[in-house]
Amino acid sequence: MAWTAIIAALSILGLVEGWTDTKIRRFPDSFMFGVGSAAYQVEGAWNLDGKGESIWDRFLHENPDLVPDGTNGDVASDSYHHYKRDVEMLREMGVDHYRFSISWPRVMPSGFPNQINEQGFQYYDNLINELLTYKIEPMVTLYHFDLPQRLQDLGGWANPLSIGWCEDYARVVFDRYASKVKYWITMNQPNSICLEGYGDSIMAPGVDMKGIADYICIKNVLLAHAKAYRLYEREYKSKYNGFVGISVSVNWANPINNKTENVQATEEYREFSIGMYLNPIWSPYGDFPQVVKDIVAKKSLKQGFFKSRLPTLSAEEKKLLKKSADFLGMNHYTTMLVKRSFQQYPSPSYQDDIGVEFSQDTNWRGAKSSWLKSYAFGIYKALLHINQNYDYPLIIITEHGWSTNAGLWDQSRVQCMKDYMRALLLAMEDGSRVAGYTAWSLMDNLEWASGISERFGLYEVDFDSEDKKRTARESALVYRHIIEERVVDDWTPPRLDIDISGRRLKRSKKNTEL
Ligand code: NOJ
């Protein structure tokens, strides 16, 4: 990277005093702007019309205290009954695509294809048809955390048979929608599914078998992705010409200082957090990163295991995985500062395997969620890292967002979106092949075990109202402007008492400040 590009990047992001980069960068006309959501977070209707129980239904029904505000996904934003309003909101913002997920237990309550729930499918038929009527491209995630509970009873993603169960589910969904849906995402954030749901108890199903179940899960989830990809490639691609990718959490990590041990710890951490999911698909040798394999093997033997806790990938599995994606779905939110740690972690565990401590710069602006701080240069660095290590893959930003309190004037979200989009434009100028950006999220929803108090929506949801009333935040208006103009400028909505459709609003002047 040329030094001028670095200076430009830093100055755009306000990090080098005295430098003002005034160049106006445009998103190309082909660039896709969208917003995202996930079934359990918005749909509600958890047991209506023949839907089966999911691991999240079970998890939050059995552990109601886990969510500080006592909410769960039983009703959530009730999109099951308000999908028309959801699509209306998409039209108001003028987005090109809507990323949403299909709930596996809604359409296949037993988890298997012996039971197809027509009524459940009807909901997605309606949503997809409504989107297509208004020329909004559906971008469908097959799996966003909500496994049928019946399959969890058989071990879920820790059981290698899950790879085949998922392939059957993918076949049913592709058969039904391949003619209408061109953009597919197999899995959302394998790291969250496995590390938080199998290696911990902060996400469903809360197996909490550290350093063992998490690694088994990662292997199975990646193979399930690859099988679904190959299925599409073999049986649907030539007829429908769609694209299939996987969404991976690619947050950035910087060393806390330039001490050699911290720089090395950061490089290792990147392999554990990014390489683990990208290497099998995008690296030339198609395997887990060597450094991860070495560290886990060494620790495992020391701990009394006869072999590494990290499962191996056979030659056949590597072949299946290699190049099994048409695009990388990148979910990016924040940056961590990494320091080598000598503190005791539970052994065995993923934390113990990595041996690092995290912090964030106190100067970075913070969101409502404690882990989320704004450092826009992070997305630029992450994109460059991907280019250098994985040879410029095609990327769609499948998530980026910011959480606030309730309230419509969300300047902090607007600021974050603009800063990150500027950094994204710069990365594109420097060679990143980014085809689209998906803001998380269309509307406020159930932020998993954090409930409804961490609000990620461009639209506010009034959870107390009968119809879960949705109202555009300032960020929705700004997003519409960016989509129209295809540049990030200083425009702010001139009339704050008029909503996105020009209707007069009775809004409270409450600020969405943190
Ligand atoms: C990533 C997850 O995919 C999504 O479900 C979640 O709401 C956001 N991160 C924000 O935490």
Task: Give a short synopsis of this structure.
With 514 residues, this protein is an alpha/beta fold. It has 18 helices and 15 strands.
Strand content: 5-15%
> Do you know the CATH architecture?
Alpha-Beta Barrel
CATH structural class: Alpha Beta
- The rough form would be described as globular
CATH fold name: TIM Barrel
Q: Report on the biggest sheet.
A: 8 strands, parallel, barrel
**Structural category:** alpha/beta
Fraction of residues in helix: 25-40%
Please, how many helices? 18
- Nearest-angstrom radius of gyration? 22 Å
**DSSP strand tally:** 15
Runs in which pLDDT lies below 50 for 5 or more consecutive residues are none
Rounded average pLDDT? 95
Describe the structure in your own words.
The protein has one domain: Glycosidases (TIM Barrel), CATH 3.20.20. It is built from 18 helices and 15 strands. It has helices at residues 3-12, 39-42, 55-62, 79-93, 104-107, 118-133, 149-152, 162-177, 190-196, 213-235, 237-240, 260-282, 290-302, 315-321, 350-354, 377-390, 411-429, 474-485, and strands at residues 32-36, 97-101, 137-143, 183-188, 243-249, 252-255, 327-331, 335-340, 356-359, 365-366, 373-374, 394-401, 433-440, 459-461, 470-472. The strands form 4 sheets. It has an 8-stranded parallel barrel with strand order 1-2-3-4-5-7-12-13, surrounded by 5 helices. A 3-stranded mixed sheet has the order 6-8-9. α1 (3-12) runs antiparallel to α17 (411-429) and α8 runs parallel beside α10. The longest helix is centred in the middle third of the chain and has 23 residues, at 213-235. The chain is globular, with a radius of gyration of 22 Å. The model has no long low-confidence stretch (mean pLDDT 95). The structure holds 1-deoxynojirimycin. The site of 1-deoxynojirimycin has 9 residues, from loops. Residues 38, 41, 188-189, 331, 399, 440, 447, 456 line the site of 1-deoxynojirimycin (NOJ).
